Amino acid sequence: MKSFEFECKRVLLGRLEKGDDVLEGLTEFCVQHGVAAGSIQALGLLQRGRLRFYDQATAAHHETEFEEGMEIASLVGNISSKDGEVFLHCHVVLADRQGRCSGGHLTTGNIAFVCEFAIMALEGTVPERTHDEATGLIMW
Ligand code: ZN
């Protein structure tokens, strides 16, 4: 088990613009506001969505696309570093008009209709992501 300890210095609230890519927009916000480590939560609406699923048996990534408007029922994630750059790892639950939910890893291709977010910015040694032999993933 690995753990890290931080002081919480700032909490930032923000909103993406209609048409922004959620992952790219949130990452850009963190870079602009000097957030190198932290946690993030968000909600809103997407014009279209894309979720990724990691198959543990085959180590393959599968993507599901949503061409209709979807609610961001929940988005949670963390902010750290990969290859020396700000890196967000977020998972999201999307709901359709009947309230049916799909969830997975947030990738690019999720286009905001609206998206409000809260970021807890942490001060301390920023975790750096590296390849993890046990899972095949890029982890702290
Ligand atoms: Zn993930």
Question: What keyword list fits this structure?
Answer:
single chain, 140 residues, mainly beta, 60s Ribosomal Protein L30, Chain: A, binds zinc ion
Q: Short description, anyone?
A:
The protein is mainly β and 140 residues long.
Largest sheet: 9 strands, mixed
CATH top level is Alpha Beta
So what's the oligomer here? single chain
> How many independent structural domains?
1
- Beta-strand residue fraction: over 45%
> Helical stretch count?
1
Along the chain, the helix and strand elements come as: EHEEEEEEEE
Q: How would you describe what is shown here?
A:
There is one protein chain. With 140 residues, the chain is mainly beta. The chain has a single domain (7-139), classed as 60s Ribosomal Protein L30, Chain: A, CATH 3.30.1330.80. The chain has 1 helix and 9 strands. Strands 1, 2, 3, 4, 5, 6, 7, 8 and 9 form a 9-stranded mixed beta sheet that branches. β8 (128-131) and β9 (138-139) form a beta hairpin. The longest helix has 11 residues, at 22-32. The radius of gyration is 15 Å and the shape is globular. Residues 89, 91, 105 line the site of zinc ion (ZN). Zinc ion is lined by residues 89, 91, 105.
